[in-house]
Amino acid sequence: MSAIHELQPHALWQHFSAICDIPHPSFHEEQIREHLIGFAKEHNLEWQSDAVGNVIIRKNATPGMENRAGVILQGHMDMVPQKNNDTVHDFPTDPIKAYIDGDWVTAEGTTLGADNGIGMAAALAVLASKDLQHGPVEALFTATEETGMIGAQGLQQGILEGKILLNLDTEDEGELYIGCAGGTRIEINGDYSTESAQDGLVFKTLYISGLKGGHSGCDIHLGRGNAIKLLIRALHRLEAEGVRIASLNGGSLANAIPREASATIAIPESSLVACNNIIDQCSNELTAELAVVEPNLKLTLSDSVPAAELMSVQDQNKWVAAVDACPNGAQRMSDSIEGVVETSLNMGVLTINEW
Ligand SMILES: [Zn+2]
Asked: What is the pLDDT of residue 354?
């Protein structure tokens, strides 16, 4: 079963196979740290570890390469421990059972830990190599990356000597990243006053669904519909007919493009026909506008149980206008690299009446 260590290039896979045998979920990295230090000792390489648990191993340049810029090979020690419901596995003590399945290396019932075991294995292969020509090499193995980059955050300034850092924590083979996105999560909270619902209101659920969603980083340039923004656009128009909001929910994660959003609304009986017309108009407009990107978009109105409280008119107008005015999606493309998004925004979650 475990012929992983026999895969080619052997110099890489033998290390990956050994890493799989050593438990190394986040916060249980002692054994993998010992393994790395043992490797350094065995190969007579200079090593050091720091207060947050990072390990640095240094290898001298091959003869004639001493004045080349030093290269840092960086990966992280910990892996994400996830298993299938029916798998019995204790991550801090049990080895990962890696095996070859067709063209893939995978694990029996658990995550494999290729993130970032394969990065560590690549660095170890370079450190162990006797035939590669290279300048000074430093391998930096950071601790507890998956749950907050604790090792990277705690890395002492000036501890590294190299000038070029290659991060070996990636998903695509044969590709080199030359930049990285920075991101900020903004949480906006605000109060609103409520009013008791009066007689003569019909309660409905306005629901937008069928959108593709996606990752706010990887898919933001595709022009997909943002369920929250589209729902608010419809609500903004319905306000002219006296429509009131009782509750509203859209999206589930800050970094996911929301696929669904819904609002419980109160419609004055006398405006029911007009509101149905507005929703039909909105629905036609959105399906035409996003016909190519979002062919399954649906905006629907259905009956709802009545709510006792509504958002006050004043606060509703303010919040709906604010959310409607919020920029969303790709804002600017890179001026230097074609096809790359420079700046983007994703309204990931909107919820009211949750407290
Ligand atoms: Zn990783």
From this structure: 56
Task: Give the separation between CA 207 and CA 301, rounded to whole angstroms.
Answer: 6
Domains of the chain (ranges; CATH) run 3-167 (3.40.630.10), 194-351 (3.30.70.360)
Which of 78, 115, 138, 294 is the catalytic position? 78
How buried is 292 (Cβ within 10 angstroms: 0-12 exposed, 13-18 middle, 19+ buried)? exposed
What is the spatial distance between Cα 190 and Cα 233, in angstroms, rounded to a whole number? Answer: 20
Q: What is the pLDDT of residue 1?
A: 44
Please list all protein residues whose beta carbon sits less than 5 angstroms from ligand 1, which is an ion.
115-116, 169
Handedness of CA 275, 353, 216, 296 (dihedral sign): negative
- Out of 29, 138, 145, 260, the active site residue is 145
**Do 61 and 69 contact (CB within 8 A), yes or no?**
no
**What spacing in Å lies between the alpha carbon of 249 and ligand 1's midpoint?**
32
Cα 171 to averaged position of ligand 1 atoms, centre (Å): 9
Other C-beta atoms closer than 10 Å to the C-beta of 111 total 17
> Can you read off the two tokens belonging to residue 32?
């993998």
Cα–Cα distance between 330 and 45 in angstroms, integer?
47
Determine the Cα–Cα distance for residues 283 and 12; give it in Å rounded to an integer. Answer: 55
Q: Is the separation of the CB atoms in 242 and 269 below 8 Å? A: no
Annotated catalytic residue 145 = yes
**pLDDT at residue 259, rounded to an integer:** 96
| pTM > 0.70 | no
3-state helix, strand, coil in the chain (%, to 5): 30, 25, 50
Burial of 183 (0-12, 13-18, 19+ CB in 10 A): exposed
End-to-end CA distance of the chain: 53
**If the chain, 355 residues long, is cut into consecutive pieces of 10 residues, what is the mean pLDDT of each piece?**
83 97 97 98 98 98 97 97 93 97 95 97 98 97 94 96 94 81 89 94 98 92 97 98 96 92 97 98 98 98 96 96 97 93 96 71
**Cα 62 to averaged position of ligand 1 atoms, centre (Å):** 30
